[in-house]
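Incident review: delayed structure delivery

Summary: a single-chain prediction request sat in the queue longer than the usual turnaround. Root cause was a stuck worker, restarted by the on-call engineer. No data loss occurred. The affected request and its eventual output are reproduced below so the record is complete for anyone auditing the incident later.

Affected input:
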Amino acid sequence: MKVVILSDLHAGDAFGLANPANVPEIKAGHEFAKILFDWYLAKVQEIGAVDLILCPGELIEGPGSKDTIELWTTDLEEQADTCADLLTMWKCDTYKTCYASLYHSGKDHNSEHLVVKELRARGRDADIKTTQRLDLNGLLVNMFHKVGGSATAYGFASQLAKTAATDVVRGAYRGYAPAELYIRGHTHNFGHAGNDLFTVINAPALKWPLGRYGRQIDRPYYTMGIIEMEINGPTDWTWQPHILRHALPEESYDKIA
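Output delivered after worker restart:
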């Protein structure tokens, strides 16, 4: 079973994953939209057909109720349509998604439903849940959007391990089997932690740390990319991160003599 994890696309944001044809050239994100889109399209072609796509949340930017200046569209249906365009570039029939934070999904509606509805209209098997619990070739997987972040260079591993340990205890309390693999998003950072009981993978994002959003970020890690997995059985599975590294504005020094 070949699986691809796509997290935090933020469709509708000029710095999220977008076809550059949709982002006006006057928008600050136009140049970077092309870089990310070209990289994404190359990965679609490189990896080829997949059996399952997992999306742990934040498929679209949402209404941008606090800040709309960098959205190339505030129309949620348009965001959902373009997100479906991006997702269906993959040769894949099945999509499992999770609800995002309320800021992106909307406090008075579930805007991600528009994406799922559009995927289904295009003949895909798609659904959305708060927590996706999946048995993939015998590997028990738990996928949920949010996980704690840390500005400490080594703190992210503790946050990941905590989310799994919490579910192990909760499973014992409620009487369900805990997962062997936990997938999270939200923090726009690739990382992993675990032991012989569980593994936790934090998926990278598909949004640039730039613009007004980027001004709020002051932490050592920010990762853009996707994750490719092969699952042959409960003890026979691997993952490979595909990471986009690119120089960002303001990382070079202006020489003044």
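Verification: The helical segments are 30-47, 76-87, 102-105, 112-121, 156-174, 211-214.
Action items: add queue-age alerting; document worker restart procedure.
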